[in-house]
Amino acid sequence: MIVSVIVDVESKQINRVFDYLVPEHFKQTVRPGMRIIVPFGPRKVQGFVIHTKHESDVDPGRLKPFDDIVDVKPALTSELLALAEWLTDHTLCLQVTALKSMLPAAMRAAYDKRISLADDASRTNLDSALLPFFKRTGDVMWDEVKKTEPGLLKIVQKEVKNGLLTIEPVVKSRETKKRVTVIEPLLPQDQLLEKADETDARAPKQALLLRYLSKITAPAALTRLLEETGISRATVKAAVKNGWADQRQVEEYRDPYEGREFKSTEPLPLMNQQKEALDSICRSLDENEHRTYLLHGITGSGKTEVYLQAIDRALKQGKEAIVLVPEISLTPQMVHRFKERFGSDVAVLHSALSKGEKYDEWRKIRDREVTVAVGARSAIFAPFENLGMIIIDEEHETSYKQEEEPRYHARDVAVERGRTYSCPVVLGSATPSLESFARAKKGVYTLLTMGSRVNNVKLPGVRIVDMREELRNGNRSMFSTDLLDAMNDRLEKKEQMVLFLNRRGYSTFIMCRDCGYVAECPHCDISLTYHRSNQTCQCHYCGYHVTRPNRCPDCESEHIRFFGSGTQRVEEELKKVLPEARVIRMDVDTTRRKGSHEKLLTAFEKGDGDILLGTQMIAKGLDFPNITLVGVLTADTMLHIPDFRSSEKTFQLLTQVSGRAGRHKKPGEVIVQSYTPDHFSIQLVKNHDYLSFFGREMVYRRQSDYPPYFFMALINISSEDLTKVVTVSGKIGEFLRKSLAETTVVHGPAASAVPRIKDRYRYQCMVKYKTEPKLAHTLKEILKTYQTEMTRSDLAITIDTNPYMLM
DNA sequence: AGCACGCCGACT
DNA sequence: GTCGGCGTGCTC
C-alpha cells in the first residue's frame, strides 16, 4: 500500500505529490486527509495524505515508508481536499499552502531538532559552551538552546562532525488539549453512604467526600469538588487509594463563552419582505438547489432574523450551516444572537480567540458536536460534510479577501462549496459590492430586496456639512457648529452618540514649519504618525517607532507641528469642548488586549459613556437603542486613497455608520463633515440611495475598464535592490503584453502606491481583461521563469488574481 | 525550504 | 595540506 503525500515544504520545486510506503501497522488506519510525518531527504516533515494506491511510478527501491500518523481522524474531508485543489488553481498558490490554510493555526506543524550525546563519555569532551545544556542526562531540544544562545548552532554542528553529538529532526505538534482532573465514585450510592457513616467519627473529611460522591451522577471536576467541599487534595488521594473513587484526566474543550449565559430566543415574527426573502431561500434549500442570493436589505431591515430562520430550516433537515461575519470579534452582538437561538449547536471561530480555543471550536465542528459555524473569513473551510446553508453577512466587506497566500475571497469559496453541496449561498448587505450587485442584475445571483426597516422605524436624517464653509466662517476646530450643537443637545437629553474617524493615533504627519521637513519612516516611503500616549512617532506599515523629536532633525527649529487628526487627538479635543462628556475611544490601540473590545462596548451599552469615538471597527453591527446621533468627522479621507474602489468604500462606510443611529424608538440623526460635500458618494448617502450610487459608479467603472466590467490581476515585484526590481518588472510587463490577447489591458510596470515597505522596493503590473484563456498559463510561466532567482536572491513576485489592495 | 555535495582561495 | 566560502542539485 502506498500513499501520495503533499509535504509541508513551501517551495515551487516541492509542489507535487511524493509517494510513501505504508508501514504494516498503519494499513488499517491511514486515510486521505490525514496528516502524517514523513522522512524527506535528511529531515522529517509533516505531510497531507492526498490518496492511497497500490502502485507507484517511482522506482520501488526509492520509496521510503512514512514514520507516523498525526491525526486520529482525517483533518480534511475528501471535499476539502478537492477544494484545496480548486484554491490552488484559482489563486496560483502552492498546494501545501492551500491545504494548511484550511486548518486552524494550532494544527500547523512546527519543526525542531533533538540533540543527544553520542554516548555518556562524550560529555567530558564536549565544547565548554555547550556544557550548561548537557549537565543533566537526557536530550536537549534545539529550540531551548536557541532561546538562550542562538549562536550555538555552529558549535553543535561541529560536535556532530566530531561524533560527540547526534541531531535528529522532529516534528512538533502545537496542539494542546486542555485536560482536567475528574473524580468518579467507584462504589454504588448506598455503599458510599454506608462508608460515610462508618468513617464519620474517625475521618470527617473522608465522610464529607463520600457524601459528595454519592450525590453526583457524572464525573466531577477536581477543582470544583475541592472548592465546594473545602477538603484537601490529600483527602481525595486517600479515597482514591482506598478504592472508593477513581481519579483521571479527561480532555476538555476550552469554552471561550464559559460562564456566560445566553437566554434562548424564539423566532421573531417576520415582515412581508422578510418572509418573501426567507421563502425563496428555503425553496432552494428544500429542492437541494444551488443558488446564490444577494440579500440587499437596508440597515435595520432584519437580515439577521432571515439568516437565523433559514439556518433553522437547514438544521431541521439534518444539514449544517456556515455563517461568515466580518472580523467577528468586532460584532459580539451578532455572535450572541446565534448563541441565543442555537445554543450549544454553535461553534464560534473568531480572531480574538486564543489558538487553543480556536482549535477546540474547530474540533467541535469536525466531531459533529455542533451544526453551525459562525466565524470570520477562514470559517468558510469549516469541515462539515452535509452543508445546507452558507451565509455571508456584510458581503461587501474587504476583510473577506485574504491578503496572504492563498489570496482567496471567501465569497468565491462559498459559491464553490455551495455548488458542491447543491445548497443556497446567501450574501447579505445594505450596500452590496458592485461586483455582487452587477451579478444579481445580470441574473447570475438572485436578488432579494428588503427596503424598509423592521417596525417601520425611519432611517436617520443625514446632514452634510461643508467644512470649507466652516473654515470661511472662522471655525478652525475639527467640529462644525452643527455637530457641536447636536452633541450638546444629546448630552442634555442623556442620549448617546457615535463619532467616527478612520484614522488612529494622534496626528497624520509631523512637519517642521520652518523648513518643511516631514518625518518619514526610514524603511518605508510613508510619513510617520504621532502617538501621544507614549510620545512616539510610528510607522503603521512596519511598526518602526522613535520618540517624538522636540527639534527639527534637519534645521534644529523648535517649530515642529503635528497635522491632521487621529482618534487620540479628537479625544483630547472633545475633553476641551465638551468637558462633561464621557468618551469611550475604540481603535486598534485601545482594543489590542483580548476581550477589551467587548468590554468597551458593554460599558457603552450600560451607559457608562456618552460618546463612542472610534475607527472602522465601530461602523458595523452596533445596535444600541439610545444612540441618536452619528457624527462623521472627515468623510473624505477614504475618497482620496489611490484605489478605484475609493468611492464605493466611502459610500459603504458612510451608509454603515449612518445605520448605527436611531435603530429603535428614538429617531436618529447623522452629521457628515466633508471638504468635498458635492461628491456623489457623499451626496447619495443623504437619501440612503444605493441604487443611484450603483448607477453612477458603474458609469465610472465602465469608462475606466474596472471591475465589474473587467477582471483584474496584480503582479507585485519587490526586492531590496531597486535596479533588480526595475529590470525584472520591465521584462514581466513586456512578457504580459506579448502573451495576452489584444483586448486585454496591461498597465505598468510602475512603482506601487507605497514604493518602499520595510526597505523593499515595490513595482507592479496590472492586467485588466474580459476573457483571457491564456492568463493562468502566462502567470504560471512568469513564476516559473523567476523561480530560481526568487530562491537565490531576495526577489519576490506575488500574484493576486483578484486584488483588493492595490497599494 | 534545507541540506549535502563539490570545487576554489587563505590559514594552522 | 585543510577549513570554509557559496553555486548546484535533490528530496518519494
Give start-end ranges of low-pLDDT stretches.
Answer: none
CATH architecture of the largest domain: 3-Layer(aba) Sandwich
- State the separation between the terminal residues, measured CA to CA: 50 Å
Number of helices: 25
Mean pLDDT: 86
- CATH topology (level 3) name of the largest domain: Rossmann fold
The secondary-structure class comes to: alpha/beta
CATH superfamily of the largest domain: P-loop containing nucleotide triphosphate hydrolases
Biggest sheet strand order reads 15-16-14-17-18-13-19
Rg, nearest Å:
31 Å
Strand content: 15-25%
Major β-sheet, in short?
A: 7 strands, parallel
What is the overall silhouette? globular
Q: Say how many strands there are.
A: 34
Question: Please, how many domains?
Answer: 6
CATH class of the largest domain: Alpha Beta
Helix content: 25-40%
Give the helices and strands, then pairings:
Layout: E1 2-7, E2 18-21, E3 35-40, E4 43-53, E5 64-65, E6 68-69, H1 78-91, H2 95-101, E7 110-117, H3 122-125, E8 140-141, H4 142-148, H5 153-161, E9 165-172, E10 178-185, H6 189-199, H7 204-215, E11 220-221, H8 222-229, H9 233-241, E12 245-252, H10 272-286, E13 291-297, H11 303-316, E14 320-324, H12 332-342, E15 346-349, H13 355-366, E16 372-375, E17 387-393, H14 410-421, E18 424-429, H15 434-442, E19 446-450, E20 461-466, H16 467-472, H17 481-493, E21 496-500, E22 509-512, E23 529-531, E24 536-538, E25 545-547, E26 560-563, H18 567-577, E27 583-586, H19 596-605, E28 611-614, E29 627-632, H20 646-658, E30 669-674, H21 680-683, H22 690-703, E31 711-719, H23 722-739, E32 745-757, E33 760-769, H24 775-785, H25 787-792, E34 796-800
Parallel strand pairs: 2-5, 13-18, 13-19, 14-16, 14-17, 15-16, 17-18, 20-30, 21-28, 21-29, 27-28, 29-30
Antiparallel strand pairs: 1-2, 1-4, 3-4, 3-6, 7-8, 7-9, 10-11, 10-12, 22-26, 23-24, 24-25, 31-33, 31-34, 32-33
The structure holds a DNA duplex (12 and 12 nucleotides).
